[in-house]
Write a structure and sequence with these properties.
Layout: E1 27-29, H1 31-50, H2 54-73, E2 74-76, E3 89-95, E4 98-105, E5 116-118, H3 122-127, E6 135-138, E7 141-152
Parallel strand pairs: 1-2, 4-5
Antiparallel strand pairs: 3-4, 3-7, 6-7
Length: about 150
């Protein structure tokens, strides 16, 4: 019989499960972001306690390890004064003439659909350090962004 038709078990064909990658750089968090991590840790700990199926249990444990690592390295950033676009600010701006509002937050709190972007995102990096009335380059276009207002989240 050909080796191609021989199979000892399904285990050799399963994809390996890796740890959830930790974003590089500092783990900056807002107060809301820290609360979200703490509540996620409690949810995952409860889930681990109730899982009986091995694959689901291992996935829950992996996610719990990720959240615990993020909590251990979390650096709570003080609320900014809102005069300059910084971590923890809500920034109103126009991008190529279209008005937008974004919050600059940490990786674990970021949700672009909800208007929250990580401080390391290219758009956030373009906004950081700007004041209301400033213009910033973005996407290879000079003065593509006009900052109209800044306030703490």
């Amino acid at each position: 019989m050909s080796v191609a038709f021989r199979r000892d078990g399904d285990e050799e064909h399963l994809e390996p499960k890796f740890e959830v990658p930790i974003p590089p750089g500092p783990n900056l968090v807002t107060a809301r972001g820290l609360d979200l991590l703490k509540s996620r840790e409690a949810e995952l700990a409860a889930l681990v306690a109730t899982q009986t199926e091995e694959t689901a249990l291992n996935a829950a444990k992996r996610d719990l390890r990720y959240v615990q690592q993020r909590l251990a390295t979390a650096q709570l950033v003080p609320v900014p004064d809102g005069t300059v676009a910084a971590f923890g600010c809500r920034v109103d701006f126009t991008l190529n003439g279209n008005p937008r509002v974004l919050d600059i937050v940490g990786h674990d709190e970021a949700d672009a659909g909800e208007g929250r972007i990580a401080f390391t995102a290219p758009l956030a990096r373009a906004l950081l350090g700007c004041e209301a009335g400033d213009f910033a380059d973005f996407g290879g276009q000079p003065d593509a962004i006009e900052v109209t207002a800044i306030r703490p989240i």
